[in-house]
Amino acid sequence: MKTVGDIASRVAGARVIGDRHAIITDIERDSRNVRFGTLFVCIPGAHVDGHDFIAQAAKSGATAILTTRDPEKGEVDLPEGMAAIVVPDLHPALEAIVPFYYSYPARDMRIIGITGTNGKTTTSYLLRAILRSAGFRVGLIGTIQIMIEEEIFPVHNTTPDVADLQKILDLMREKNMDYVIMEVSSHALDQNRVAGIEFDTAIFTNLTQDHLDYHKTIENYRLAKSKLFDLVSRKGVKIEKNAIINIDDPSGEFMLEHANCQKFTYSIEHESDFIASEINVTSIGSRFRFTSKHLDLELNLKITGIFNIYNAMAAASAALAEHIDPWIVKKSLEKFTSVPGRFERVDVGQNFSVIVDYAHTPDGVTNVLRTARQIARKRILTVFGCGGDRDRTKRPIMGRLAAELSDVVIVTSDNPRSEDPQKILDEVEAGVLEKIENKTHECIISRREAIFHAINIAEEDDIVVILGKGHETYQILNDRTIHFDDRETAREAIICLASRDFSEIVTDSRKIEPDCLFVALKGEKFNGEDFAIDAIEKGAAGVIVSETCPAEKIPSQGKIFKVPNTLEAYQWLARFHRERFDIPVIAITGSNGKTTTKDLTAAVISSLGKIQKTAENFNNEIGLPLTLFGINENHAAAVVEMGMRGLGQIATLASIAEPTIGVVTNVGETHIELLGSIDNIARAKSELVQSIPPGGTAILNADDHRVAAMKGLANPKVRILTFGINKKADIQGSNVLIQNHRTTFEVESGNFSREFSIPMVGIHNVYDALAAIAVGFALNISAERIAEGLQNLSPTKMRLEIIERHGFRIINDTYNASPLSMRAAIETTAEISRSRKVAVLGDMLELGKIAPNAHRQIGECLGANDFEIVITCGELADYIAEGARGAGVPFVATTKSHEEALEILKSVLDVGDTILVKGSRGMRMERIVARL
Q1: Vertex 282 angle, CA 280 and 286, to 5°
Q2: What's the whole-number mean pLDDT along residues 907-914?
């Protein structure tokens, strides 16, 4: 353990205010991660000043702060009991403090640093494979991820800052790593993020134009890279240090001058310690002879391209410098297959090639396209862009190279960040036009559209090369970061565009149609791949199976597509189908009322023409696509429900349906067992609001404060319409009157006022109707047409369905149940009943820890609404009974089965009674209704 005084002693000019002997247990810059004993580093940033969070850090248990501001001079407030280390300059202080705090973990492992413009990631993975084959435990810190053996951690910078890096190294030491391989960026070297690290081996891959937005000149960029060789040359506690340098690169000699240790060079074109010769590059790999004074290896790699031969040489040279057996080097390199996003093939079963690569520099583009040219049988179609807020000078250069080395060039967005995407494309296109001659080129801002276009125009034996993002799974836009994966999008494009050749999409092998495409979905109790061969035999023209599908289950005939996830592919197809139709899509979510609101909405907008709507309860990741596939050229609009059983699910459904209007009815306790809290339920529902595109409309319940708060989550260019009764709303309901089987109410909106009527009962149904009316207003449907649609609506089965039978009035509300809908049903029954009220209630499921109290409160609600007979059925029946008895209900019975409940019910009924029957879907309470 280190004390405040220990840490302060490492920084010249540091002063301690407070307890020098206080123990430090951690060093943190983010107040949200502070724990007891933390030294909180107060970094002033462009947007956030760490000093503003000192009080929060103190509350979380921080022992001390590290700052340049003096509390004794009133420059910063220091909470009572907290110490301060005041230093002249924060960053040099951190460089001294952090490695010391963690007891210099890099000294206990061999550290191999790799720097260069291109090839760092592939070289690191190749070297990792060699060292692990030799029996060593290896950690990796790189562009794609951090790995501790097989354990994977996310990464935000190629080289983390000094505090995060030392913490990672400390964890690697704790887990007994023998080696750590690090990609070391020029930014990290220039900013000294690698302070406190003594390198054992340093590798230089190459140097070409990049990051000039930061370094300004290529000379500065080269000098920053050379610092790695200054570091490996320093005397320290370690011995036998190595510099591995690509001497074919013009900057190789410069790196050699900075290396004052054992040096090894590698090359193809010049004299060097390690040489590659007799090179043969093919579409599936590469072969070469790797020699030195004491070595002669024939290497057959499964990765292709001259640039990968350089990467393999760098890894092999470093491994040999580390005294790894040459035959282990050979075996490891020949076994190696790929690095994510580095010349990665996307093969779904198409008759042309698709390659995704991270290349985002002129040199990277050149290497990838020249390799593609070596293996191309026909055309090369290149999709690429340049990042915003980065080196602008390379944009026309990359445009020229792409035009020179491709047959078709499609310029698109990369990560535009704060720049106007069109202006970036214009600067790239300027270079394209210099070299394109009579070849084809296009500029398409949307990266998804660009990839789809390239796949669409690709012909047999062409190569589609998608450059710039490689392994990245996001795209940074001006106002947000979205999920985006070139590989995933390419697969989606291949599957979707190929689907046009099939008659329809089928997931049930019992419903095969001639020339259809069968998607082999997997469930908990079934695997569609078991029926793939059968589907082809019945007439399907193709099947989609998973990449892991056993060979014996794959048909020998028909078109076979292999994807990582067949459900995802099914959803791609549904979205592609939906995009064919330029119609409004209204998506509805909420804890209760989704189905009723859907039916009301379809009725309200029925004057537009034929409406496609969710059937039954098809509102999940399989049901929603099924609804979308039903859209055809005769439909004027679609109304879909969106259910959820976890965070992120509605966002996924919205990405498939691409709704133009989103409706959130309410937020209640439904699915609380799965989401943990009502706030999480609200967060899940809000995903629909966040998905509505600019120009769309979000319709929100003003009387539900959690729903009303979602207004702030919508895109600023999304129109917001609110509905409600108690709070001021855009669509304001009032004067609700329930009579017989109908409910009438008035609606005001601006200067508009009118009475509406619906063939259903209950105040909660008025809310659903107001939401539907809001949709009508959003689509500019007249009040007369809206009223006519509502008037002609057929009541929905099992939702407050009123049945007159044998002298009894039965309220069949057995479709489902939650605390919110249960209370609504009880209150509505009380309002329409003029006789004795009876309730037969089943359990409300999926309520988790709140279930006992939620059921107890329903019993209390029954008493408050003057029910005289309550019969409960299920595992939680006792809680409803307990609440009902406590609320004064005269007759209460608990049962465990439908039969027992019916027997008691029949024994107590009188002619004229009103009987409410309700419970969750799993309770099947409609069976009681059927037998009454």
Answers
A1: 55
A2: 94
What's the pLDDT at 617? 81
Distances (CA, A) of 892 to 87, 834, 883: 74, 21, 10
8 A C-beta contact, residue 182 and residue 112? yes
Picking from 288, 278, 340, 343, the residue whose alpha carbon sits closest to that of residue 312 is 288
Checking if the pLDDT of 158 tops 70, the result is no
Counting residues of the chain whose pLDDT is more than 70, the rounded percentage is 99
Whether residue 746 contacts residue 734, with contact meaning beta carbons closer than 8 Å, is answered with yes
Interval 375-401: pLDDT, tens: 899 999 999 999 999 989 999 999 999
CB 871 within 8 A of CB 839: yes
Q: Is the dihedral of CA 449, 450, 455, 459 positive or negative?
A: positive
What span, in angstroms and rounded, lies between the C-alpha atoms of 857 and 668? 14
* 737, 725 contact by CB (below 8 A): no
> Beta partners for 641?
588
Say if residues 538 and 558 touch (Cβ distance below 8 Å): no
Q: Sort 478 into a burial class: Cβ within 10 Å, 0-12 / 13-18 / 19+.
A: exposed
Under DSSP, is residue 295 helix (H, G, I), strand (E, B) or coil?
A: strand
pLDDT band per the 50, 70, 90 thresholds, residue 241: very high
Per residue in 336-347, pLDDT (tens digit) is 998 889 899 999
Cα pseudo-dihedral 918, 923, 927, 932, rounded to 10: -40
pLDDT in tens, 85-127: 999 999 899 999 999 999 999 999 999 999 999 899 999 999 9
The backbone torsions φ and ψ at residue 781, rounded to the nearest 5 degrees and listed phi first, read: -85, 140
Residue 159 pLDDT grade (very low, low, confident, very high; cuts 50, 70, 90): low
CA gap 671, 854 in Å, rounded: 13
- Mean pLDDT of all residues in the chain? 94
Both structure tokens of 831: 């309002």
pTM for the model stands at: 0.78
User: Which of 213, 205, 207, 139 has the alpha carbon at shortest distance from 172?
Assistant: 139
Helices and strands in the chain: count of H runs, count of E runs: 31, 45
CA-angle at 177, arms to 174 and 180, nearest 5°: 115
pLDDT tens digits, one per residue of 878-907: 999 999 999 999 999 999 999 999 999 999
- The pair of structure tokens assigned to 595 is 């189905």
d(CA 667, CA 707): 7
CA 371 to chain centre: 32
Mode of pairing for the β-strands spanning 752-758 and 742-749 = antiparallel
Where is 757: in which H helix or E strand?
strand 752-758
User: Which helix H or strand E contains 307, and what residues bound it?
Assistant: helix 306-321
Cα-flanking dihedrals φ and ψ of residue 417, to 5°?
55, -130
Whether the per-residue pLDDT at 791 is higher than 90: the answer is no
Residue 504, SS3? coil
Pairing of strands 731-739, 742-749: antiparallel
Rounded Cα distance between 244 and 367, Å, is 21
Which helix or strand (DSSP H or E) is residue 411 part of? strand 408-411
Amino acid at the residue 314: A
For residue 707, give the nearest of 774, 757, 804 by alpha carbon.
774
How far is it, in rounded angstroms, from Cα 577 to Cα 529?
Answer: 23
Beta-bridge mates of residue 183: 114
Instruction: Residue 465: name the closest of 363, 371, 392 by CA.
Output: 371
What 3 state SS string does 657-723 have?
HCCCEEEECCCCCCCHHHHCCHHHHHHHHHHHHHHCCCCCEEEEECCCHHHHHHHHHCCCCCEEEEE
Place of tokens 């005939």: 557
Reported in sequence order, the residue ranges of 531-668 that DSSP labels E, i.e. its strands, are 542-546, 559-563, 585-589, 610-613, 635-641, 661-664
- At 819-834, the pLDDT tens digits run 989 999 999 999 888 8
3-state SS, residue 573 = helix
- Looking up tokens 């593609």 gives 372
Q: Give the pLDDT of residue 670.
A: 79
Let me know: does 844 contact 855? Beta carbons within 8 Å.
Answer: yes
